[in-house]
Specification:
This protein has a single domain, classed as Four Helix Bundle (Hemerythrin (Met), subunit A), CATH 1.20.120.450. The chain contains seven helices and two strands; from the N terminus they run ααααααββα. It has a two-stranded antiparallel sheet. A hairpin with a 3-residue loop joins strand 1 and strand 2. Helix 1 runs parallel beside helix 7 and helix 3 runs parallel beside helix 5. 25% of the residues are buried. The mean pLDDT is 95.
Length: 156
């Protein structure tokens, strides 16, 4: 496997492991603690993490197949709100299972990338010109950013 692809997989797996270690054994009251994301609890943030990677994978797939990704911040906010609302009644075990499943799907998607794929450039509707490698790297950066928000909410 290409070193760059392996690095992306390792970074994403390590970031995912940080989330899983942080949430292991949380009490119901801790899941309801507010985070710095307006209106989101710890559980809502975990729910977001369990659902957002499917969107990133779709973005990668569309761009790699020659399509255009047109999602903007308003679209992203609506997607997040819908995913959290749809999962509001889920037990935390189901959310964690989805988080682990999406992680496996993401690892598989990254593993299918080629070095040429990584170098492809495209125009993200919010972030501008970027490579597929940078786009795939969003996942680990995103997991880590939300891990810090969870840590702050939990006081750890």
């Amino acid at each position: 496997m290409n070193d760059r692809i392996q690095r992306l997989q390792n970074e994403t797996a390590a970031a995912r492991a940080e989330v899983l270690a942080l949430i292991a054994g949380l009490k119901p009251a801790q899941l309801e603690l507010p985070t710095s994301n307006d209106g989101w609890s710890v559980k809502d943030t975990l729910t977001h993490l369990s659902s957002i990677e499917a969107r990133v994978r779709l973005m990668l797939q569309r761009v790699l197949s020659g399509g255009v990704w047109t999602g903007d911040q308003i679209d992203l906010d609506a997607y997040n709100a819908r995913c959290i609302s749809e999962r509001r009644t889920w037990k935390v075990d189901a959310i964690v299972a989805e988080f682990e499943k999406t992680g496996a799907e993401t690892a598989d998607a990254i593993g299918r990338l080629t070095p040429n794929d990584l170098d492809r450039e495209w125009t993200h509707p919010v972030q501008g010109r970027m490579t597929i490698e940078r786009t795939a790297g969003i996942i680990a950066r995103h997991l880590r950013a939300h891990t810090e928000e969870l840590r702050a909410a939990l006081g750890t």
